Every structure is written in structure tokens, then in C-alpha cells.
Amino acid sequence: MRVDLHRPAETRWQLSTAQQDAARELLAVYQRDLGLQPAVVAGMARPIVRADYWAEMEGIASAAGVPVDVVVTGNLYYDALKAVLVGCTAFAVDTPNGPLHARNLDWWSENDVLRRHTLETEFVGGPAGRFRTVGWPGFVGAFSGVAENRFAVTLNAVISDEPLQAAAPVVFALRQVLEEAENFEAVLHTLRTIPLASDSLLLLTGVREGEMVVIERTPTRAEVRRPENGAIFVTNDYRMLRTGLRGFESELQASACRRYDRASALVASQKPKDAAECFACLSDPEVRMGLTVQQMVFQAGTGLCAVK
Question: Where is each Peptidase C45 hydrolase domain found (predicted)?
């Protein structure tokens, strides 16, 4: 899929007939999962979503033949759900060509729709250059993205005791930095300081040795975790930020430490040198979960975007 940001926002997403069908199926699943009234969600979201992103969703709604409120609600699934059913295991390691950035996206979905409808999208015409995301038809934000010669970023779910805020949804904040940020340090500053609607763990990698961090976020607070021995790992729990809800556990959070420890051990025993070795770590039985829907490896220094 190719999205030209020079085009009018309503016409940027040229979905094929098959992609329109996929978008309708995905949006129906989101609606059943959330159990929220789309008009209510959209009404709350309208003041905090950028006008061009809103217009993109209007264009998708028109093409798919569904109300724009339904498309908006689907795009805000992560923030609205407060991250209970979304997980991940991700890590980054130094190489001579810059950090390799690997991640599993763990997300329960009805009828395996998220895996079946995975969509790689190339965006051109952005202020800072082209970039790629891994998402789904009808989804205009970013969970995972790489911008060649700039950075790569992925979102892991986490939950704190802070309530949702009337601030930028995380997936649109990531889309914005992919469009606008010129380098690793610029992204780090933005994602560390921008108010966000909900909690998140953000793995950010650049193009130079050591350019990799995990930004631990609540809507109002942030801590930055740095690599050790040329590698960094993240699952679904805070490691630096102190928050409440220690007694709350989903299946994803209950397994977070186990997955973190196993990924760390695998990388310590043999640090991956390429995408194939990263995928081997991601596919280890103690790292990959039954609800893993996407596996990917990025490398901003080379523009690598490999997806399984």
C-alpha cells in the first residue's frame, strides 16, 4: 500500500475492494470488543485528532461504506481499551549497520483477523521523508514504523493507575513523529514530553551505535531506559516508572517477565546479526505467544522492514 501525503487527505488511502472488505471486517470486530457507542467515542476524539488524520478516516469511511464514527473508534481501539488485550515482546541490538529492532505484536482477535489482514504501508511526501508502517486496512495511525536513515519505533501495551486523558492518542503521536521528526533525538524528545491519552512502552531505535531506548509512558509522566551491553528489551511492564495497579494482571502482563527474561537470555547467548536471527528469537516457544499476530524486524540505518 502506498499513501501520498501530498494528496488531499480524503483521497490518500486508495483501498482495493479486498482491502475495503477487510476494513469492514476489522471494524466490526473492534466494535464488538469495545462495546462502546461509536458516536460517543468520535465526539470525544474530534478535538484531539489532527484535522488531516480525521479527513483520512472520512475518506476510508466513504470508500468502505461505513460511518466515520466507526472508523474513528477502530483507530482509537488501543487507547479506548486501556491496553488490556494488547501485548508485545520487542528488543533491539547493535550491529555495524545500526540497531536491529525486532518485535512480536500480541493481540487477541476474533477469527485471526489481525494476522490475516496485516498491511504494510509506505508513506511518501512527509515533511521529514518517507517511512513505512505495519498495520491494517482502515487504520491510519501507527503501532510499528521505520523511517530509513532516521529511526524505528514500536508500541508495547502497559497499564497504570492514571486515567485516560484528553490528549494525543498514542497511535497518532507515533504517526506524527514518523512524518515530522528528522532524527532519533528529535523523536526521543517528542515522545518523552508530549501529553498522551494513555499508557505505553515505546521502543525507539536510531541509525548509530547505542541509539536505542525504551520510553516508559503514562499520560503525564515519562522515564527513559537505556541499553546495556548493546541490547535493550521490553514486554508489558514498567521497569523504571513507579505506578499503581500492581495487583492487576492480564495474561499478557502475567507472562511479561518470563518473555523478557527469555528474550534477554537468547540475545545474551548469541546476539542476532540479521533479520533471520532476530526472527529466530521472536519465534522461540517461550517468547512467541499463541496470540502473536505480527512479527517484524526493522533497521533504520538500512531501511529494512521485514514482516512475517
Answer: 94-286
Question: Domain-by-domain residue ranges, the chain?
Answer: 2-80, 83-307
According to DSSP H, which parts of the chain are helical?
17-34, 38-45, 51-64, 68-75, 77-81, 113-116, 170-180, 184-193, 251-254, 256-269, 275-282
Res. 246: pLDDT tops 70: no
State pLDDT tens for residues 36-81.
788 888 999 999 999 999 999 999 999 999 999 999 999 998 887 7
Contact 141, 169 (CB under 8 A): yes
Residue type, 111: N
Tell me the three cell numbers of residue 150: 532516521
Q: Nine-digit cell at 72?
A: 474513528
Instruction: Determine phi and psi for 86, rounding to 5 degrees.
Output: -115, 130
Topology given in CATH for the domain delimited by 83-307: Penicillin V Acylase; Chain A (3.60.60)
Taking every pair of C-alpha atoms in the chain, what is the biggest distance, in angstroms?
52
Is pLDDT of 15 > 60? Answer: yes
Cell readout for 28 is: 466490526
Answer yes or no: is pLDDT of 119 > 70: yes
**Cβ pair 90, 104 in contact under 8 A:** yes
Among 75-84, 119-128, 159-168, the range of highest mean pLDDT: 119-128
